[in-house]
Amino acid sequence: MKHRMVQYGLWPTCNNSCAFCLRKNREVWNKQQMLEAIDMTCKNIDYVDWENEFSDGISILGGEIYFITDKELQDAYMGLIDKIIDKILLVSKSEHCRYSTVTNGMYDPAFLYKVIDRIKEKTGGMQFVDVNFSYDLKYRYPNDEKRLLALQNAREFAKRYDYRPGIQTILTQYIIEDILYKGYDFNKFLNEDIAGCNFCFLYPHPISTGKKLNDFFFKREDFIKFCIYIKSTYQEIWYNMYRSTHNSGIYKYTGLIDKTYETITQQPVLSDGKEELTECGHSILYRCYSDSNNCMLCDLEAIGEE
Description:
eight-stranded mixed β-sheet
């Protein structure tokens, strides 16, 4: 199965320093570098077949995008949004075409609203939007104030647009133990903390900080027990986790992989690190147990078939 969306990592700059940061490049770019990245992405869009080959649309990621407050940067990004609307969203022949993005939610949401308002206004609705908020119980936030701000922004986004944004949480040993063994009120979290949102567990990618986080990667027995519990108790969340993990195994195309920007005509390439397969046919990244070399996607599939 071919993944028909192109992902652009616009810049590595972020307004947070998560303990498990997944960014390989954690540089802080200056304003000129960020403007150049926006400009080159705008130009590159003209050289991609959005109507057919990559008709599922575009994903724009950082670092973090929506914390920027500089007017020149915001204006430039809005120019990119207009380009995306005119050249991708209103051109694609796919009903799945989206402007997809992930955000940490730790900022004044005014600029995020400005972006989504523009897309909604020019396309006639929210059908071309896929917005996801990252969330975590232990490793992401510098303090509880930031955690609560992220939750508040996600809930307000849901209310403002009558839309279910995604809440994406990397499944860790810490979370499994909290829910299975320590009495964490998961129902309250779903019904109050993220009311109006759509929740999904993600599998843990390799950590790029070099830090040793003892309860980040999960144990195999606990993971299997947790999956059985979620499947029997929270069917939508099980479906989201199952589908997301499968979809993550579909190699994703990246635009403008050459960050020297020597040419704007770069075509999307497969470059997300999942191309190395093990004997089971799944990516080596699914060997993510802390105590086993088994493939967690194989285990997930076996549970799904039960």
